[in-house]
User: What shape does this take?
Amino acid sequence: VTLADNVSIARKKVVGELHHGSVLTNDQVMTLRMMCAYKLLERKTLCELSGISKATLYRLTHGQSWRHLPG
Assistant: This one.
């Protein structure tokens, strides 16, 4: 492996559940989006059950994060 290969690999952006700091999986994000869209539970309850903040839920339901997923 050359230095150029290492630099190329390091610059690739890791997104979603593959990111080391991710709390959610791709499936959980899609489920949360669906539950918010159909108002199946209150947002506060969804946050408590999934272990995320209201701000995080807002960002994932408004396309500001997890943009690599449809919906």
Notes: The longest helix spans residues 26-37.
